[in-house]
Specification:
Elements (H helix, E strand, L loop, with lengths): L1 E5 L3 E5 L12 E2 H13 L5 H48 L5 H26 L1 H25 L2 H11 E7 L2 E6 L3 H10 L21
Antiparallel strand pairs: 1-2, 2-3, 4-5
Helix pairs in contact: 1-4, 2-3, 2-4, 4-5
Length: about 210
């Protein structure tokens, strides 16, 4: 679709005609904005829900941390075993048990495997903070997307929509769009959840949806 100014003040959108004549009538920019705002409104939720989702993320991080610690222990054990092999093999070379050529070849292989283990350990160590920070930032963006869109200029509106939505189309007077990940999950969870009454505590259904994957 392309925009066109009418009477030097009204903006209408219409099909470009790239694939031939289109029977879809022109649509006012305000109408499109209202429909997009309606989609973004699906991501809105109150402070209580925001706290529950943050708690679900942190609970999932606790499970993730336990698994990560177990993985680090396995990797550390494997790195230590490889280092011990390299040292024993060096002694065998000095004693003439193995040849210099065999020692060089196996040293390269085992050092590469040991370095891979050490890199994986470092990756596990740096993952926790990024997981929580990125998760909460995305949730906050979804929560505020409607208000951001309402206040934004035309170019900023486009940025918000490109961040949150994909596969947008207009046909027969109806707007169709899909939420990008993870906003699709957020919309689905909000739609399916019954939040607790004020003063009560509870969890959003199916908290496992907020696991790292």
């Amino acid at each position: 679709m392309v925009a066109e100014i009418k009477k030097q003040r009204y903006i209408y959108y219409h099909c470009t005609g790239f694939k031939g004549k289109c029977g879809e009538p022109y649509v006012r920019e305000e109408v499109l904005e209202q429909r997009f705002a309606g989609l973004l409104r699906q991501l809105r939720f109150d402070d209580a829900a925001f706290e529950l989702i943050q708690r679900a993320l942190r609970e999932s991080l606790q499970d993730e941390t336990r698994e990560r610690r177990a993985a680090i222990e396995r990797l550390r054990g494997e790195a230590d075993r490889l280092q011990a092999r390299i040292e024993r093999m060096y002694e065998d070379k000095l004693d003439g048990v193995i040849s210099d050529d065999f020692y060089r070849r196996m040293q390269i292989v085992w050092r590469e495997e040991r370095d891979r283990c050490l890199k994986d350990i470092e990756r596990h160590h740096s993952a926790d903070d990024e997981y929580i920070d990125n998760g909460i930032a995305l949730i906050r963006l979804g929560r505020e997307a409607h208000d951001l869109f309402e206040r934004a200029s035309a170019s900023e509106k486009r940025r918000v929509l490109n961040l949150v939505l994909s596969n947008c189309s207009w046909a027969h007077g109806e707007l169709t769009a899909k939420f990008r990940q993870p906003f699709d999950l957020l919309s689905e969870t909000i739609a399916q959840s019954t939040l607790p009454e004020k003063g009560e505590t509870g969890d959003l259904p199916e908290n496992e949806k907020w696991l790292r994957g």
